[in-house]
């Protein structure tokens, strides 16, 4: 079984990496929306944006980021090679964690269906 960690290589860290997502594709769900663009790496990466407009309290903003990271950590191996920026909406602050996780799960499912991941370990045209 593969470890489901959240290594540094799975994160968007630099401002240039976040800026590269501008003009990419978008997906939305009830309490979050995502901007994404395919990358040339072997895995997907996550960036988070939870502004003070969402909540003035850092505790609430950090809770939303923690839930988003946990959801991504569970889905990371099933997602295509994309860079994803998750942006929280103000409505997310008042919602329970389980419902937010369901909301994020639906977002990941739609992303996985939109951009199917290539089959690992297969060669194209080998048995054609």
Walkthrough of the structure:
This protein has 128 residues and is of the alpha+beta class. The chain has a single domain, classed as Ribosomal Protein S5, domain 2 (2-Layer Sandwich). Helix content is 32%, strand content 18%. Strands 1-2-4-3 form a four-stranded mixed beta sheet, with helices on one face. Strand 1 (25-28) and strand 2 (32-38) form a beta hairpin. The termini are far apart.
List the helices and strands and how they pair.
Layout (H helix, E strand, L loop, with lengths): L14 H5 L5 E4 L3 E7 L6 E5 L8 H18 L6 E7 L8 H18 L14
List keywords for this structure.
128 residues, alpha+beta, 4 strands, globular
| Number of separate helices | 3
What is the overall silhouette?
globular
What is the total domain count? 1
Element-level helix/strand string: HEEEHEH
Largest sheet: 4 strands, mixed
Summarize the structure.
This protein is of the alpha+beta class and 128 residues long. The chain has helices spanning 15-19, 58-75, 97-114, and strands spanning 25-28, 32-38, 45-49, 82-88.
């Amino acid at each position: 079984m593969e470890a489901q960690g959240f290594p540094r290589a799975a994160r968007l860290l630099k401002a240039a990496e976040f800026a590269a997502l501008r003009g990419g594709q978008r997906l939305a769900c009830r309490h979050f929306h995502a901007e994404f663009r395919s990358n040339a790496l072997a895995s997907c990466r996550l960036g988070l944006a939870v502004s003070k407009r969402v909540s003035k309290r850092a505790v609430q903003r950090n809770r939303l980021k923690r839930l988003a990271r946990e959801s991504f950590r569970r889905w990371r191996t099933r997602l295509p090679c994309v860079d994803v920026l998750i942006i929280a909406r103000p409505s997310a602050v008042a919602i329970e964690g389980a419902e937010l996780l369901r909301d994020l799960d639906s977002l990941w499912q739609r992303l996985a269906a939109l951009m199917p991941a290539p089959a690992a370990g297969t060669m194209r045209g080998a048995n054609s």
